[in-house]
Amino acid sequence: MAPIDYNKVKLVSAKHPKPPGVKFTYGTAGFRMKAELLDSVTFRVGILASLRSKKLDSKTIGVMITASHNPEEDNGVKLVDPYGEMLEQSWEEHATKLANAESDDDLVNVIQDIIVNTGLDGSKDSSVVYARDTRPSGPALVAAVEDALKVLGAKALDFGVKTTPELHYVTRCLNTAGTKDAYGEPTEEGYFKKLGDAFRELVEQKPHLSALTVDAANGVGAPKVRQLSEVVGKFIDLRVVNDDIYTKGKLNFQCGADFVKTQQRAPPGMNLVSGMRACSLDGDADRIVYYYADEDGKFRLLDGDKIAGLAASFIIDLVRTAGIGDIKIGVVQTAYANGSSTAYLTNVLKVPVSCVPTGVKHLHHEAEKYDVGVYFEANGHGTVLFSSHAINSIRSAKGGTPEQVTAINQLSALTNLINQTVGDAISDMLFVESILMNKQITLRQWDEAYTDLPNRLVKVVVADRHIFKTTDAERKLVEPKGLQDKINAIVAPYTEGRSFVRPSGTEDVVRVYAEAATRQDCDELAFKIAGLVFDEAGGVGERPKEFL
Ligand code: 16G
Ligand code: MG
């Protein structure tokens, strides 16, 4: 317990000067940009983490240094709240203000404002756990966080090179240790043991599937999947490719979940042949997509929507077989969910579906409203949340028949296998594998649940993307005024046509999504809407040739 020494804060802050004129925003995934611009930001995020900890009775706050699927020269930083959730939204504004304080004196003023506004006690103890991915810029940014923690006298826990979900996991473990909600051992060994034990419970008796090729995006997922293999290798043959975390320029380059999802093809060099099973993680391993080649060698993607469908159908069956009543299962998607997936969930699985704005935190919050909330973005971010009511019901359920007992045990194992703090590519991969092993199905059979509508995503560069305002979970534009009516008129004639326009939260562009019954219609629709946005809402530069 010691008051904050503001003179010392100023002295140390002088070593981490803000680049003049740059405006930082704490967006959907924290701060993210060229790594060379981030030194002052990470220093200040370290300060904020300590303040947040002081505010929350000295609970441990997490700091993750990663730029996920972005190019290697980028980096980013985000905060994790005590139970592994994303930083509470009202604090995003404090983060933005701290990052934008122009001088060391301004910084002190902002800190003092935050203390007053949030009513926190600056002299309280604080505790922060931090980790980074494999980016070359990581160690220097970690040092900036450490400078901040030192000057505020915070307890600093270095978790090393980790995936984003591991950091979320350990944050929750640290804050629940010794309580009835203890989440697990607050170590990496504890993380793998928890996943490994649950996976074994689910698949021990099942015939093995063929090998799974795991594209690790040349990122932190590579060494982690190898570690996982040591724990689950008896049941599953994991072959890691794109595992070069040392050669400069390779991270996320022509590989990884984002590449595969946006390019709709396997990473070059993988040689995806019919019969192979493959998946791709992103650069910080919080996102996963599966894929295979069909008999004709054609690439087939099993994205986050497909994972949500598989997961929901498996859990619905288990809950039914277990005979546990009074459990409300729901699925949360965004506007990017393929129309066929929503139709499958609604009409075939007959499960309630909610649609929320893009970004993990929105899905996570909505999923908390169900007893079992399955949430996935089409891009492969997602997990399943079990409410305490669901967990208690599963724990206290007593099966009569052997089928019931198995279903109850499997549900119980799932609550441990699935990372409850955030979407986790490694945990999701084991979850998918356990379902496929239980059902003894191929990727193709999984894919047969429904057929995706052809879809396309187009970027439009505009003078000011902030003029775009959306409503109805980003499915409709309210501003620029009149544009939505024009979009509706263009979409109307297309069979199963759907399109929406939203400003990106991570790039300086506007995104156009379109889907329709045929590939040709879909492309035409997407490029017509993109052309409309370009012409009517301040398109910048040369009008792309493909725009209609
Ligand atoms: C961020 C979000 C992701 C979202 C994406 C959308 C997190 C951890 N990540 O990466 O969920 O899909 O942004 O990007 O929330 P966009 O706004 O540029 O389309
Ligand atoms: Mg990521």
From TrEMBL:
InterPro entries: A-D-PHexomutase_a/b/a-I, A-D-PHexomutase_a/b/a-I/II/III, A-D-PHexomutase_C, A-D-PHexomutase_C_sf, A-D-PHexomutase_CS, AMG1_II, AMG1_III, PAGM. Pfam families: AMG1_II (PF21405), AMG1_III (PF21404), PGM_PMM_I (PF02878), PGM_PMM_IV (PF00408). GO terms for molecular function: magnesium ion binding; phosphoacetylglucosamine mutase activity. CDD domains: PGM3. Substrate binds at E377, A378, N379, R502, P503, S504, G505, T506, R511. One of its GO terms (biological process) is carbohydrate metabolic process. Residues 187-289, 303-440 form the Phosphoacetylglucosamine mutase AMG1 domain. It comes from the Eukaryota. Its EC number is 5.4.2.3. It is an enzyme of class 5 (isomerase). Residues 60-102, 104-178 form the Alpha-D-phosphohexomutase alpha/beta/alpha domain. Mg(2+) binds at S68, D282, D284, D286. Residues 457-530 form the Alpha-D-phosphohexomutase C-terminal domain. Its cofactor is Mg(2+). PANTHER family: PHOSPHOACETYLGLUCOSAMINE MUTASE. Belongs to the phosphohexose mutase family. Catalyzes the conversion of GlcNAc-6-P into GlcNAc-1-P during the synthesis of uridine diphosphate/UDP-GlcNAc, which is a biosynthetic precursor of chitin and also supplies the amino sugars for N-linked oligosaccharides of glycoproteins. This is Phosphoacetylglucosamine mutase.
